UniProtKB/TrEMBL annotation, chain A:
Entry keywords, A to Z: Aminoacyl-tRNA synthetase, ATP-binding, Ligase, Magnesium, Metal-binding, Nucleotide-binding, Protein biosynthesis
Top-rank taxon, per record: Bacteria
Gene Ontology CC annotation, any one: phenylalanine-tRNA ligase complex
GO molecular function: ATP binding; magnesium ion binding; phenylalanine-tRNA ligase activity; RNA binding
Organism expressing this protein natively: Candidatus Roizmanbacteria bacterium CG11_big_fil_rev_8_21_14_0_20_35_14
Protein's recorded name: phenylalanine--tRNA ligase
A Pfam family: tRNA_synthFbeta
Automatic annotation (TrEMBL), chain B:
One term of GO molecular function: magnesium ion binding
UniProt-recorded name of the protein: Phenylalanine--tRNA ligase alpha subunit
Family: Belongs to the class-II aminoacyl-tRNA synthetase family. Phe-tRNA synthetase alpha subunit type 1 subfamily.
InterPro entries linked to this entry: aa-tRNA-synth_II, aa-tRNA-synth_II/BPL/LPL, Phe-tRNA-synth_IIc_asu, Phe-tRNA_ligase_II_N, Phe_tRNA_ligase_alpha1_bac, Phenylalanyl-tRNA_Synthase, tRNA-bd_arm
Length: 633, 341
């Protein structure tokens, strides 16, 4: 997820002499990635990628905190302004209204709420501009406040119209299957029993918490009283509901990453302050904070040598401590003492207290290594190749890759075109090639019928290639080498490599390709693959494993025959009984026949050329003729 | 008895004056015809002492082969003789077939060979995989977002008690623990290049794509080794002038984790008004130091060994290298695209 903040807004929290482009460059190297800086008017907008475990910097304050640690590493001045988290804790006495918050299943661990009298209107210009520059539409001061404090402090906030909630009650429960809601953008959704909702105590749903407000309870231009509200959520529940309904608001994206409940509180107080400032807000109820028992601050201990081992250079111990301190970690104990060299370097260890906003993402020593290494600067580390090691590649893999490559280049040089198709195909295509759907693995959650079944043959795809390209090219010869997937009971499928070839020429063209491939690979075996005819196309599929097993790197050596070769031509009339193959088998019964070529075929007249010779002596033409006569006439 | 040298000389002499095929044919009859020189010599075999006949026969045979060779050479010479007609040497040469390979094939080949040179072996692990290898052992708990329906394809098949459901592997990292278990004791130097799948099909995503995983485990492997390896790769693959940088990132199965950028080849890393890159850099890969939990799952003691892993898309490398700007064209089988390569 990305957030946008502006430079001038950042300067309210950060005192620095770095330019926006320096900030972009240095922060990207050591912390949040700033994908772009755009100048708008006299301000600059940063577009910042928030990585999933660092929701703590998805805010102005979070970025300021990172910047204050990172920029000084590059010689830039950068300090958090002292007042960066000041807010007015004072609660007005005029608290005559009450709110009833009921959460029997504790679905939202922390609930923060307050009722305020407000005056709706436009936000001040600077708020409007900042929100718009950050990609958020400015609506009115009541809504804008929630967005503004979310960006500034880092927790999604919500505002209800107190009068539209009607009952003064917020009852948190799971939805019933089939319940309907209309979100504030007037879209309708159907809920199921995993979704968490707020109900006003009468069964009327008034909010889809953590994701989006509902039309029946949001503020309108008539709003006089609001409930300003923040709750903490179960991040998994948020993600599940938001993904299923397709409501991907900024609030949902943040809440599913489990932001810190302390940040919720800060955001809440900042919001109250802003309502007072820009909406003439007056508190008219107690401040509700149903925080669970505060967690004990997490600690982490580790040996210093782990830093050296993983980073690859030795960083001074006091530098490590400083980096961690600047990031908000408290050094609880450190056996390192810079004025005394400890006897055993390996024994030096460190123990830190983890700040609340980092409690979920820091849990093992390697996490602290990352913090230190990134701030120290990956760019300062040398580029070293790993030490050499002799690792044996399994022979069958070595063969697979070399022979596959050989086949690919050979077919290419013959003039064929390699295609790479999706491993998943449609039901229609399977049926078109007369394969059985039930022999295929099916995707349970496909996103298109085009890619629903795992191939057990490459031919449907090749057929599709030929069909799709008809009209684009006259002569087409395609091949693909890919895996197919044969289902196995209670196990992973058998993944087998196949070579598929498809042509729009003719049967003998395709047969010739396979024959010459056999020759190229020195395979001494008869063709066993069946050529299929489909429409005007011819297709064949070969088992790559068979080719690999029968492949010979170098053709078997035959002595050169020094004796004369007698060439004889003969024409046969072929028929279902006398096929080329029948003739061939008969002819090769002769021990003197070395080779047989096809010369021509005219209608059913087949002319063949026979090469007779003996490895021991010169034979006469007569001998050869006698041999040939034994073949059918 | 048989002066073969003289005969050959005579033949060469008479051939030198031959200018057409007809004359050549006459000479052929003279030497090889029924009553030609060779047959004459054969007939004389009766006059040779029995003991020498074998030797004599062999000599005649050799002579005959030599005569044939000379005649054939002359015939070729005559047939190639230029005619007096205009010879346009600017005409195109004869057309030979030149097919094409998918550009991803060249890319994978190049990548594998770059890594082979520094001792990394290429392996291949399943595309249809158990959740166990795709997620569980990679420190990705059951409720991790990557494991939900929106991020991973599931196969409609019963799940296994230990191994979980069957998925189409969404990343090559599934091969990490398989390789650790195969090798058992480091060193490990592996590259795994296979098809991966994710339920995402739009202008910038295909539901199938290639991924390329590198894994290096040994005693005292550190971040500097990862940097060095990626830097070597970027220079070999993209060019000597390219630079890389590591940026902090997050993956469940590495700690620390990085994203790796390579400097843009179009603007030379300047990033000013470049239509290709964001600010001079292009995202190349995700990487990191192998998480101790992952090493443990592979049966490797994280206190003794450490390692790094990276994964990136050859599809993307290919596009970055060639300027192919439309990812959908890669696997839709359009011959007008395929035959270019």
């Amino acid at each position: 997820m990305n957030i946008k903040i502006t430079h001038n807004w950042l300067l309210e929290y950060l005192d620095t002499d770095a330019t926006p482009y320096e900030i972009q460059k240095y922060l990207s190297l050591c912390g949040p990635s700033i994908e772009s800086v755009t100048k708008i008017g006299n301000d600059f907008v940063y577009d910042i990628e928030v990585i999933s475990n660092r929701i703590d910097y998805a805010s102005l304050i979070g970025i300021a905190r990172e910047a204050a640690t990172i920029l000084p590493m590059f010689g830039k001045k950068a300090k958090l302004k002292k007042d960066y988290l000041t807010y007015d804790r004072g609660i007005d006495n005029n608290s005559h209204l009450k709110l009833e918050i009921i959460d029997p299943e504790n679905l939202c661990p922390r609930k923060l709420a307050i009722i305020m009298d407000v005056e709706i209107g436009d936000s001040p210009k600077y708020i409007k501009e900042r929100l718009e520059n950050c990609g958020i539409r400015s609506l009115n001061n009541l809504i804008d406040t929630t967005n503004y404090v979310m960006l500034e402090v880092g927790y999604p906030a919500h505002v209800f119209d107190y009068d539209r909630v009607k009952t003064g009650k917020i009852f948190i429960r799971k939805a019933k299957k089939g319940e309907k809601i209309t979100t504030l953008d007037k879209k309708n959704y159907l809920l199921n029993s995993n979704d968490i909702i707020f109900d006003d105590g009468t069964g009327r749903i008034i909010d889809l918490p953590g994701i989006m407000g509902l039309d029946n309870s949001v503020v309108t231009e008539k709003t006089k009283k609001i409930i300003f509200w923040i709750e903490t959520n179960d991040p998994k529940a948020i993600r599940r509901t938001s993904m299923r309904l397709g409501i991907r608001t900024a609030a949902a994206s943040m809440n599913e990453k489990n932001p810190d409940s302390e940040v919720a509180k800060m955001t809440f107080l900042k919001g109250i302050e802003l309502y007072k400032k820009i909406a003439n807000g007056k508190i008219v109820s107690p401040l509700y904070d149903t925080a669970p028992e505060p967690e004990k601050q997490k600690m982490l201990s580790m040996k210093y040598e782990i830093f050296d081992k993983l980073i690859g250079v030795k960083i001074e111990r006091d530098k490590i401590n400083n980096i961690l301190r600047n990031l908000g970690f408290e050094i609880a104990s450190s056996s390192f003492d810079k004025f005394r060299t400890p006897r055993n370097d390996k024994q030096q260890s460190l123990s830190v207290k983890i700040p609340s906003y980092r409690k979920y993402d820091i849990s093992i020593p390697e996490d602290l290594v990352e913090e230190v290494a990134r701030i120290y600067g990956y760019h300062k580390l040398p580029n070293n190749l790993p030490p050499p090691a002799n690792v044996q590649q399994p022979q069958e893999l070595e063969k697979l890759f070399t022979i596959t490559s050989k086949i690919k280049y050979f077919l290419k040089h013959l003039g064929l075109t390699e295609t790479v198709n999706y491993s998943m195909i449609s039901k229609e295509l399977i049926e078109e090639l007369n394969l059985n759907i039930r022999d295929h693995l099916r995707l349970a959650n496909t996103i298109s019928n085009e890619i629903e079944y795992m191939r057990i043959s490459l031919l449907p795809s090749l057929y599709k290639n030929l069909k799709d390209n008809t009209g684009r090219k006259d002569i087409m010869r395609f091949f693909e080498i890919s895996k197919v997937y044969y289902p196995k009971k209670n196990d992973l499928p058998n993944e087998v490599y196949k070579l598929g070839i498809g042509v729009n020429t003719d049967y003998f063209d395709l047969k010739g390709i396979v024959e010459v491939l056999y020759k190229e690979l020195n395979i001494e075996s008869d063709l066993k693959e069946k050529i299929i005819n489909k429409d005007i196309f011819y297709l064949v599929e070969l088992d790559l494993d068979f080719l690999i097993k029968n492949y010979q790197m170098i053709a078997p050596y035959k002595q050169i025959n020094p004796y004369a070769v007698i060439k004889l031509d003969k024409t046969f009339t072929i028929s279902p009984h006398i096929t080329y193959e029948v003739i061939r088998q008969k002819a090769f019964l002769s021990k003197l026949l070395q080779k047989m070529d096809m010369v021509s075929l005219y209608e059913n007249k087949l002319t063949l050329r026979f090469y007779y010779s003996s490895p021991n002596r010169n034979i006469t033409e007569e001998e050869a003729k006698t041999e040939l006569d034994r073949v059918i006439h | 008895m048989l002066d073969d040298k003289k005969l050959t000389k005579e033949l060469i002499n008479s051939l030198s004056s031959v200018t057409n095929l007809k004359d050549l044919e006459l000479i052929e009859i003279k030497y090889l015809g029924r009553n030609g020189v060779i047959n004459d010599l054969l007939k004389k075999i009766k006059e040779i002492p029995v003991g020498d006949r074998k030797e004599y026969g062999k000599k005649i045979n050799q002579l005959k082969q030599e005569i044939k060779r000379l005649l054939e050479t002359k015939r070729l010479e005559l047939s190639k003789k230029k005619s007096d007609k205009f010879f346009d040497s600017t005409l195109p040469g004869k057309t030979y077939p030149k097919g094409s390979l998918h550009p991803i094939t060249y890319t994978i080949e190049k990548i594998a060979s770059i890594f082979q040179k520094i001792g990394f072996i290429r392996v291949s692990y399943p595309e249809v995989e158990w959740e166990y290898f795709a997620f569980e052992v990679l420190n990705m708990p059951k409720d991790h977002p990557a494991r939900d329906d929106f991020e991973t394809f599931f196969i409609d098949a019963p799940s296994d008690k230990k191994m979980g459901k069957v998925v189409l592997t969404p990343h090559t990292s599934s091969g990490q623990v398989r390789e650790m278990r195969r090798v058992k004791t480091p060193p490990i130097r592996m590259v795994n290049i296979v098809k991966c799948y994710r339920p995402n099909w739009d202008i910038t995503h295909n539901p199938m794509f290639y991924q390329f995983e590198g894994l290096c485990i040994d005693r005292s492997i550190n971040i500097a080794h990862l940097k060095g390896t990626i830097d070597y790769f970027a220079k070999e693959f993209f060019g000597e002038d390219r630079k890389i940088r590591l940026r902090p990132f997050h993956f469940q199965f590495t700690e620390p984790s990085f994203e790796i950028d390579v400097s843009c080849g179009v603007c030379g890393g300047k990033g000013v008004d470049c239509h290709v890159c964001k600010s001079g850099w292009l995202e190349l890969a995700g990487a990191g130091m192998v998480h101790p939990e992952v090493l443990r799952a592979g049966g490797i003691d994280p206190n003794k060994y450490s390692g790094w892993a990276f994964g990136f898309g050859p599809d993307r490398c290919l596009m970055m290298k060639t300027g192919i700007d439309n990812i959908r064209i890669l696997y839709n089988g359009d011959v007008r695209f395929l035959e270019q390569f």
